[in-house]
Write a structure and sequence with these properties.
By secondary structure, the chain is of the alpha/beta class. The protein folds into three domains: about 5-285, Aldolase class I (TIM Barrel), CATH 3.20.20; about 325-385; about 385-505, Double Stranded RNA Binding Domain (2-Layer Sandwich). The chain has helices at about 10-15, 25-40, 55-65, 80-90, 105-110, 115-130, 150-160, 175-190, 210-220, 240-250, 265-275, 300-305, 335-345, 350-365, 370-385, 430-440, 485-505; strands at about 5, 5-10, 45, 70-75, 95-100, 135-140, 165-170, 200-205, 225, 255-260, 390-400, 405-415, 415-425, 445-455, 460-470, 475-480. The radius of gyration is 24 Å and the shape is globular.
Length: about 525
């Protein structure tokens, strides 16, 4: 039996990147786009070209490089946005313009358009997009809170104007699965011309129902799911790609739909997104969480040894998890490291491998056994360090213990020059951050400081995430080390470096977070 195809539309680089602090740099965006192209994503939404020069360049470069995927850019319902978007995607083998406007009463009030004026705007802008690109997607933002009659009216207009994909966003994650199914089924039945277009579902996860809502919409006739890796996205995030793909695969008996996704590439891309976004995947996250395939209890372990199917509905290798946790040590060579990383789905260029190898040897000197998770943390820490950084750590000594004050003596290299200082604080980490602040005064505010042990044992590496905010711009820094205070210092410096890049790159009004969705005119 041939199965219905469901298109996977990945918006990690657009909706995912809108999540505060998840900013990715140009090279990271290109790398992630290539991984998606490779894993079988049908449509990649690569950014919002009018939002900034950086977004425009990323969309244009992704468009030029894509081999298999349709490359899409986002544009509000105005000619300037659409022109810029068309310019960015024009070199793609398969370009798409995705234009949208908020259609619910709350959203209509913002640009102050009445229903008729908005309908006219939709016809004009979709027609304009269609004149520039054969493949146009249109979205009524906040569709699930738009009056049904009006929603039908504007969708019909967009189809008449030439949109070939109609996306139904549940922008605020308000819908429940039954409503999601009913809405899609009804729209397809009621709207003239609906049979000639693809209906897409775009769900946010505010009530934890994004995956269920997307699958319900597919059951009712939607044939495109909009999603992000790890469910990254504003607030509680978007539908997680790995969840909908694996749900349709594992429960194909009741959801007989196929995708083009090579599920064995899921883990590698999930880890990469985790690293570059700085958003750690929760341990018990479905499919990609560290514990998703771990069986701790005696009963489970016993059952697993006798027959894996007792407690496992999918195999770890189906999502690209290598079965073994082969331990590496200080005698392991470069080739063993390369092959181990490849098992983990991590391919590195020769120069990156060299850097990681140096870090690995260093770690193996301090730690008897180096586990998979240690290697992943090493690769992440290496990726976080950038040669072009303004600030780097030269050395750090701390005095801590029950008798205060705790003290940090720090040397930083700032724009090529070494600076040293000693500072005190409430604990060694506080003293260290105070020392950084004295050597490099700034106005950024620490929003999050988080430490995790990578493996078990007192010699475990600590991974540290630091999120900082300055003038509405947010950057996340990460690092790993067997010394928690060193990892903290590096993560803090990493976040500062990232903020500096954002400071340099975005002039006022150009940042994606400051492009207002209301400015449709
Ligand atoms: O959630 C939403 O409504 C969106 C639109 C821009 C499609 O992301
Ligand atoms: Zn969205």
């Amino acid at each position: 039996m041939t199965q219905d195809r469901v298109l996977i539309f990945d918006t990690t680089l657009r909706d995912g990147e809108q999540s505060p602090g998840a900013t990715m740099n140009h090279a990271e965006k290109l790398e992630l786009a290539e991984m998606r192209d490779d894993m079988g994503v049908d449509i990649i939404e690569a950014g919002f070209p009018i939002a900034s020069e950086g977004d425009f360049n990323a969309v244009r470069e992704v468009a030029k490089r894509s081999k298999n995927s349709v490359i899409c850019g986002l544009a509000r319902a105005n000619m300037k946005d659409i022109d810029r978007c068309a310019e960015a995607v024009q070199h793609a083998a398969q370009p798409r313009i995705h234009t949208f406007i908020g259609t619910s009463p709350l959203h209509r009030a913002i640009p102050n358009l009445n229903k008729n004026e908005m309908a006219d705007r939709i016809y004009e802008t979709v027609t304009h997009a269609r004149n520039l690109c054969d493949n146009v997607q249109w979205s009524p933002m906040d569709a699930t809170r738009t009056e049904y009659e009006y929603l039908c009216r504007v969708i019909e207009i967009a189809i008449k104007a030439g949109a070939s994909t109609i996306n139904i966003p549940d922008t605020v994650g308000y819908t429940a699965p039954r409503e999601s199914a009913e809405l899609i089924a009804k729209l397809i039945k009621d709207i003239p011309g609906a049979a000639d277009v693809i209906f897409a579902t775009h769900c946010h996860n505010d009530l934890g129902m994004a995956t269920a809502n997307s699958l319900a919409a597919v059951g009712a006739g939607a044939r495109q799911i909009e999603c992000t890796i790890n469910g990254l996205g504003e607030r509680a995030g978007n539908t997680a790609l790995e969840e909908v793909v694996m749900a349709m695969k594992v429960r194909n008996d009741i959801m007989p739909y196929e995708t083009r996704i090579d599920s064995t590439k899921i883990m590698a891309i999930s880890r990469r997104v985790e690293t570059v976004s700085g958003f750690a995947v929760q341990f018990n996250k479905a499919i990609v969480g560290k514990n998703a395939f771990a069986h701790e209890s005696g009963i489970h372990q016993d059952g697993m040894l006798k027959n894996a199917e007792t407690f496992e509905i999918m195999r770890p290798e189906d999502v690209g998890l290598s079965e073994t946790n082969l331990v590496m040590g200080k005698h392991s060579g470069r080739a063993a490291l390369r092959s181990k990383l490849a098992d983990l789905g991590i391919e590195l260029a020769d120069n990156q491998l060299n850097d990681v190898f140096v870090r690995f040897k260093n770690l193996a000197d301090r730690k008897k056994e180096v586990f998979d998770d240690d290697l992943i943390a090493l690769v992440r820490a290496d990726a976080a360090d950038d040669q072009s950084d303004h600030i780097s750590l030269k050395s750090l000594q701390v005095v801590c213990g029950t008798e205060g004050p705790q003290e940090a003596t720090l040397k930083l290299i700032i724009d090529g020059e070494t600076h040293a200082i000693t500072a005190t604080g409430d604990g060694p980490v506080d003293a260290t951050f105070n020392a950084v602040n004295k050597l490099f005064p700034h106005t950024a505010r620490l929003q999050l400081y988080q430490v995790n042990a990578v493996t078990e044992g007192t010699d475990a590496q600590a991974t540290v995430s630091v999120r900082m905010e300055e003038d509405g711009k947010i950057a996340t820094g990460q690092s790993a080390d067997t010394d928690t205070v060193v990892a903290s210092a590096k993560a803090y410096i990493n976040a500062l470096n990232r903020l500096l890049v954002r400071r340099e790159k975005s002039s006022p009004g150009e940042d994606i977070k400051s492009v207002s969705y209301k400015d449709a005119g």
